[in-house]
Design goal:
single chain; alpha/beta; Glutaredoxin; 7 strands; globular; disordered N terminus; Thioredoxin_domain; oxidoreductase activity
Length: about 160
């Protein structure tokens, strides 16, 4: 798997550690810097067009983004090597949160995302508070509770 190769030498980002400071261009061409979201709760979602669970998780994350619009920033990080694959996916599964493209895997390797989808909940101070691998609809209420705690500063 390409992702494993990209992350072989990386240190996995763990709960309680600062999130890596990275930047990449989003689908509109704007540069997104992770540290520019300091003061907000951020959910970084690594996904790929070939990932079946991502088709279900992306709309759920978009609903969470809407629900917590004043306090939560969701950023999707696409790891496809071909941007047209990601764009085709987004045409079928549109979301309103920024998507950055990581074809070389710089974000994925810095976070050491173990699979797709993998999400990282980052508090207002830039500290990783939760890592979620995979997607199960039954886990959404737990994620909502974690977001609420992070928003309230109770991470």
């Amino acid at each position: 798997m390409a992702l494993a190769a990209m992350s072989a030498s990386a240190h996995a980002v763990s709960v309680g550690e600062p999130a890596p400071q990275l930047e990449a261009q989003d689908q509109s061409g704007a540069w997104q810097r992770l540290d520019s979201f300091k003061g907000k709760v951020v959910y970084i979602d690594f996904w790929a067009s070939w990932c079946a669970p991502c088709r279900r998780s992306m709309p759920a994350l978009d609903r969470l983004r809407t629900q917590w619009s004043n306090d939560l920033i969701v950023v999707g990080v696409n790891v496809d090597s071909e941007k047209p694959d990601a764009l085709a996916f987004l045409k079928k599964t549109p979301v309103k949160f920024p998507i950055v493209f990581d074809p070389e895997g710089s974000w994925a390797s810095r976070f050491d995302a173990p699979g797709m989808p993998t999400g990282y909940l980052i508090d207002r101070d830039g500290i990783v508070r939760h890592v979620n691998v995979g997607y199960q609809p039954s886990e959404l209420s737990e994620l909502e509770d974690l977001i609420k705690k992070a928003v309230e500063g109770r991470s």
